[in-house]
Amino acid sequence: MSSTQPYTDLGSWIARRAAISPDRPAITFGDDTQTFGALSHRIDCLAAQLREGGVAVGDRVGYLGPNHPAFLVTMFGCARAGAVFVPLNFRLTGAELAYIIGDAGIGTLIVDASLTPGVDAVRDELAVTRWIAVGTVDGWESFDAVASASEPITDPAAPEPSDVGLIMYTSGTTGRPKGAMLTHGNMFWNNVNALLSLDVTSTDISLVCAPLFHIGGLNVTTLVTLQKGGQIVLMPAFDPVQALKLIADKHITTMFGVPAMYLFMSQVPDFETTDVSSIRYLVCGGAPVPEPLMRRYGARGIPFAQGYGLTETAPLALVMSTDESERKIGAAGNKVVPLSDVRLVDADYNEVPVGEPGEICVRGPQVMAGYWRNEAATRAVIDDGGWFHTGDIGTADADGYVFVVDRVKDMVITGGENVYPAEVESVLYSHPAVAEVAVLGTPHEKWGEAVTAVVALKPDATLTLDELREHAKDRLAGYKLPLRLEFVDALPRNPSGKVLKFQLRDALAE
Ligand code: ATP
Ligand code: MG
User: Fold this and answer.
1) What is the ipTM of this complex?
2) What is the domain-level CATH number for residue 107?
């Protein structure tokens, strides 16, 4: 490796690891396991092919597909070639996808064979020049052929920490996803912060079942485990039964998931009897871990580490170890990660006193460069002092632990009082008839907004508004109790399991 290679360069992570432990297992997918040496070789071959195909420094390469080794080979290969990697959400279809592919200016597009028909349907609208399928598809080059067509790259790009490595679109929980520009430095420093705050070892075997195209699936345990020299086991997509089976079969030691995934796993009938003794701890983020869920896993000897962050912060901003997680039950994150700053501010950007709610702001080397081709949106979230405004409300306690309260956008204002849905939801979840619940504000003539509970019932269960209010009234102030109850079969969720409240809001407005 040339001595001018910046140590922060994402493209060099696997090459450097392969130089240390080439024969250690890196990625397992189905029955296949690639060592670090083999992975590094494949990455460098793909990088050479991308360059030979005309991909220049800064060009965007898109990847659309479920979790697969090709995703990671492409990401690292792009970095080796100096290209910008753009992971795409495979739940998006047709017009949405065409919009993002056009917006990002993707020239080379790599698509899982299962998803090429959807792309072919909008092919005429795309300015893509090279079409590569993971699998065998008519009219597409094959990824395997491409990745073995050239000798490994000998003069990889040497991106600076400030160069963009990925454009990663946000989850679209509150509306249309935004393209966060993550630099090589962002990726590197997030990994350093993760290694400094989570207990990661080179003998870890991490299950990857959250989508890699989301920051949580990619950057919380996946890349951290790889850079540390541990092994990852990829699942194409999350399935609670399969996840439990893999934990037992592959002796999984840790994984990243969102609470919904852990909830669904705990509802599998085999949950109590599956051998989970290899698990050291689970990492949860994206939303707070409800206390009953923590207890269920605790009963099986499994602790949680928790984290809070956003795509825009690559993502770690707050992390809580397993011990702290036990001590501060209900806290959604805890102390700021070592190499970053966090503060809570009011509407005038003044820091709020201990215990008072304020918007969580993050500053540090993991904060994105900005939104892709959207200067106005960038200026709206990153202030002159370099603070990124998250749009989330939190409170801090005297020990410096930050409790994430809710999104600014989701707060319900009823009769002049602020109600944070997450607090109400955690109480309603304990009602025995409730399988899933989301709380949101709906327009109300007298109170401005009405606290509204949208519930998916457990099989054969029934529930009335009065029963729900009665259940919650000892634990919630009167104004926080639901005024309206609506039922759905299941809550609308995005691929990482987050409830799409804007969809519920639209549906209720009709
Ligand atoms: P969009 O910005 O497109 O609406 P999104 O904000 O859901 O989507 P992500 O960047 O994937 O996209 O998610 C970040 C958000 O997830 C945070 O702003 C916060 O609201 C929520 N979040 C993340 N971790 C936690 C946590 N531990 N507790 C509570 N909320 C969390
Ligand atoms: Mg967001």
Assistant:
1) 0.99
2) 3.40.50.980
